[in-house]
User: What shape does this take?
Amino acid sequence: MASMDSTDEKKIALVTGASRGIGVEIAAALVNDGFYVVGTATSASGADAISERLADNGAGMVLRVDDPASIEAAVKQLQQDHGHPAVVVHNAGVTRDNLMLRMSDDEWTSVIDTNLTSVYRLTKPLLRAMMKSRWGRVINVSSVVAQMGNPGQSNYVASKAGMEGFTRSLAAELGSRNITVNAVAPGFVDTDMTDALTDDQRSAMLERVALGRMAAPAEVAAVVSFLASDSAGYITGETIAVNGGLYMS
Ligand code: NAP
Assistant: This one.
């Protein structure tokens, strides 16, 4: 059982990138499941909006996952204000697409830092309490491209493939403590991230999706919600695809 105080005996779930897109729906689904949800945004105004949205069922917090000092401060604040999370959902992520020949060191490093190194940095300080309570869920939001590959996204694909490998290794380390570690790999989801695509890119992608449409963010959140539940207690080290048949492995 997670620690109590402001959470009124609810288990705490930490969701990164809860200000927009898929993260908003993950936070809402976990509130619906009875968790006290701490959602993060990169700005104070984003964090305030999360607090307002979650009302008594959660709170917003500022966190930049690519900044080790911000992670340290946020973990401290989280533990002081709310307690120890039983669930952490690593959802925050960015793309900075470019063909390999044109990719800058900054495009490479910023995507790896934000999408992958962050998962190492933020998971580590939360594990001790999960291990102590003998119940925990680490859920990583990956992408279909981790398995499929995608031209112009070698940085992003490397970060998500790394995340899936991390998922399997950590699952093997933590299984004996009743902590599961899984990933969810969405396909083409209707959020700000995919808004950046041109109409041509969008229709080319949709032609390859068996279901012929983008996913709604709530359809990804539903799988995160399941993985966080007791019903998913015997699933670990897995990556669950939510891609509408874009890529069937
Ligand atoms: P989105 O709408 O672009 O939202 C990104 C979220 O990440 C925002 O909450 C943003 O916070 C946060 N964020 C960005 N940089 C951050 C940083 N340095 N530190 C902390 N938080 C940061 O993205 P989305 O489409 O919902 O994607 C969510 C996850 O799903 C990502 O991991 C993405 O790779 C994955 N995914 C998305 C799709 C898709 O089609 N959309 C497909 C496969 C996988 P602010 O609002 O404060 O900027």
The first helix runs from residue 21 to 32. The mean pLDDT is 96. The chain has nine helices and seven strands.
